[in-house]
Design goal:
binds magnesium ion, alpha/beta, elongated, 8 strands, 8-stranded mixed β-sheet, binds guanosine-5'-triphosphate
Amino acid sequence: MFRKKEKTDSRSDRRGRFRAGLARTRARMAGRLGSALRGGRIDEDLLEELEEILYEADIGVRSCERVIDGLRGRIRAERLGSSADLSTALREELLAILGDPPPSVAPAGSTRPRVLLILGVNGSGKTTTIGKLAHRFRDEGKSVVIAAADTFRAAAVDQLAVWADRAGADLICQDQGTDPAAVTFDALAAAKARKADILLVDTAGRLHTKTNLMEELRKVHRVLRRADPAMPHESLLVLDGVTGQNGLVQAHRFHEAVGLSGVILTKIDGTAKGGVVVAVKAELGIPVRLVGVGEGIDDLHDFDPELFVDELLDIS
Ligand SMILES: Nc1nc2c(ncn2[C@@H]2O[C@H](COP(=O)(O)OP(=O)(O)OP(=O)(O)O)[C@@H](O)[C@H]2O)c(=O)[nH]1
Ligand SMILES: [Mg+2]
């Protein structure tokens, strides 16, 4: 019933791909930080330069102020004297905003099926991310059902079918134009009947009928909640990292509609503004759970704050 999955990359390859995915941000940020810090003098001019570098990496006004104020206070209180001290303090300030590593989206021992509702505007990377997630879960030996609840475009189902096939997951779809909530209901029944470990629900990103997109998503959410108040176990918003902070406004609307449990930030490989991860946490108060660093099936990583900040600042 659950088809054979594609061969995956090894762990070290994955780490390498994560690093490669952050290359643009690192090149811009770490290079400039390095030369600013090498200047030697720790004064207001240096803080101003750091602020500009952080701001350009898209970490957001609020986080920028918080980091710089934190550094200013520590320079005084802890008498930070060397650029190495300052670099360590900067790392700590960024980590303080990002917080502890977020929990896994499908922790071991979860009840079956664990339901992940995937949301986001048109083109943000929902379908691709679902393919990557399905592949990862299959790699962990879990059985996966995917609900094609983007019923507007026929091509949407075809695209999802390709990913389901690559990952070795089962796809539940219906005719174009069917109510997405009905597809979700059927997919949940199928996942239960097949005793699947995971149900991934792909949704539309665009307004395509008279119904408001948020209304449609609320209905999908409601169908799951009615079946089990614990469902969906995760409502994850896929945000395009290239659009950076412009995506945060939309994020508020999705959050109001269904209550988000996390963000999946995609296309970080296509931007030098990877600092947007910090802005998402600081401005939305919603943790980044996963990061997409490419179009390949292995290019999705759990968000690890320490690893991320170290890559950002080029600390190895
Ligand atoms: N470089 C890169 N491209 C990505 C990433 N994630 C998705 N993409 C690309 O982004 C484009 C849109 O991805 P989709 O998965 O179709 O986006 P979607 O949100 O399902 O779009 P709609 O169904 O139209 O709402 C595709 O060309 C993907 O290959 C990523 O992490 N890095
Ligand atoms: Mg899609």
